[in-house]
User: What shape does this take?
Amino acid sequence: MATIKRIAMVTGGMGGLGEAICIKLAKLGNTVVTTYSPSNTKVQKWLKAMNEQGYHFYAYPCDVTDFESCQACIRKMTEDLGPVDVLVNNAGITRDMTFKKMDKINWDAVMHANLDSCFNMTKQVCDGMMDRGWGRVINISSVNGQKGAFGQTNYSAAKAGMHGFTKALALEVARKGVTVNTISPGYIGTSMVMAIPKEVLDSKIIPQIPMGRLGKPEEVAGLVAYLASEEAAFVTGANIAINGGQHMQ
Ligand code: NDP
Assistant: This one.
């Protein structure tokens, strides 16, 4: 895959999927920057561990639910490193419970972290991408935004909303060399999925996946790398499933 060195910002890059995305984009020669929650105390340890593996990542504190925090983060990193060419809106959370038990706090938390975050981060970089005539916005949604999931009215709504955002923005920026796409992973073996009780994974989730296994973070990272590449210039407004055949549209 031919790659020109770009500056890539991956939100939540210290998480299971985010780390694999950071590594893949770095291997392709990009300068990789990630965000971490201001409350995260593991960042120096993570940066050191990555350094020991040969990856030099940059990390900035940012609460993706907070517009001003995103503004400050992008302003500082742009001063330090230059403007963002590739934005991967990857940070996200789950707060699963049936609708009967769903309270406003857990509804709002999931909407803010998964959906508002796309506005909060993309708003900081989109005009610059258009001015420079090149940009990639990649939104990490979920299979459960496509098909719905029991106990996830909040998450399914937020993740479905991300793709509405993708399609509308893709239309607005298409002539400016900026593409906007959604990736909808199925169940990937990260801590978010490993938090599901093993008996539920074995009895309810794996049997729904025709490939009979969880996805690997590296498999999602490869798709991100493609969408970030020059070759993907004609792909925009797409919602690309990567789910082992669990859900086909
Ligand atoms: P993790 O829980 O491992 O990582 C989530 C990341 O999001 C963390 O790095 C966390 O940072 C960051 N984050 C959460 N809230 C905030 C916030 N308010 N501000 C800044 N950063 C925040 O999850 P995964 O790697 O598994 O998931 C990554 C993305 O992929 C999510 O959007 C998820 O919904 C999606 N996805 C995952 C699937 C899976 O099977 N794993 C399937 C489908 C979609 P910190 O630790 O610093 O708080």
Strands lie at 7-10, 31-36, 58-61, 86-89, 135-140, 178-185, 239-242. DSSP finds nine helices and seven strands in the chain. The mean pLDDT is 96.
